[in-house]
Hints:
Elements: H1 10-13, E1 23-29, E2 42-49, E3 54-62, H2 70-76, E4 79-87, H3 88-97, E5 102-107, H4 111-124, E6 131-134, H5 143-153, E7 157-158, H6 171-179, H7 184-193, H8 211-220, E8 222-224, E9 229-231, E10 233-240, H9 254-275, H10 280-302, H11 322-328, H12 336-354, H13 368-384
Amino acid sequence: MLFISLFIGAAGTLAQQLSERSAISIITFSPGTEELYEGFGHSAIRVYDPVNQVDWAYNYGTFDFNQPHFYLNFTRGHLLYRLAVEDFRRMRQVYAYFNRTITEQVLNLTQTQKQAVFDFLQNNALPQNAQYNYDYFYDNCATRIGDVFVESLGVDFAYDTTYVSEPNLSIRTLTDRYTSKQFPWGKLGIDLCLGIPMDHRLKNLQYMFLPDYVYLAFKHAHIWHNETWVKAVQNERVLFKAKDVTVQKTWLTPMVTFWGLAVLVVLVSIWAYRSGRRIRWFDRFLFIFIGLLGTLLFLLWVATDHKAAHDNLNLLWALPTHFIVGLMLFRKQLPRWVNWYFLLAGILGIILILIWPLVPQALNTALIPVVLILCTRCFSIIFSA
């Protein structure tokens, strides 16, 4: 989605004083249903001042495709996002067009506190300050919203750390709630590429990497106001209510696809064994593909700054060495060590399936049939040698 970004110069804006009629709000946009990146929702800060003709949204979720080495940096995990100042009316129109509910929480701030937040945002939006190193779960466009008020108001602002009704959940558990039904293939990609850090238990305030929890955190937060603590949210209103629509859910989920493929591979393997045939073309493709996948997962772990991709136990079945044995399958006569390799890989796969629920990383269950396919072909190659 394209927004009108308003990068405001330092001279006039930092000196601008908000009027008594001004208001600062937390804006929460509901999750979208079209693309995975929309599926977690979005947050922004609105500054409204009719006297000064200000109606701006401060959006920490923008990036520039034209920045130097963008694709290389993205691959390596050097994600440079920036704070953009946007026309809120335009932003509202865009999200309404895409049928996303827009909720506004007007904050109960004194005039001094409003000015402090506004000055902080304006300074943060300057070109030399606007960029930051994005992290999907610990420093993103939602967490930055909460940080603004802690840093600009200091001891005058306090979160209620007990606001979470289900404490000690992991990042994976929380993200699954946004992806498992609507984006099953997206969930598979997340579970495939991201490792054990996704399963670490979060502190309550760390839930704020999701916009819905930014909304909840502010709903339970307090502000020091006229010598007493008051609720941070003065009033709440829905600026746009999404229309109820029937979302088409795909029946071709990873679970259905991979189990269907597994049944087919097992049946073909039985037929090939009984008829004395080989299906080397499939084995070559299978092991080369899985080997390349394992290499990618390994590189994401050791060669990038994607912290959540570390310690990925999918490498127990997506062995990078499968690529080498896949190439060996082009030979008419296999070396003896290749058969030993397939035996060990097959045994490892069976053990992994048996202990699947006990592995410290929550492996996607749709991958069980993939491991079963690998085991089936490992033993088939041995018996057909």
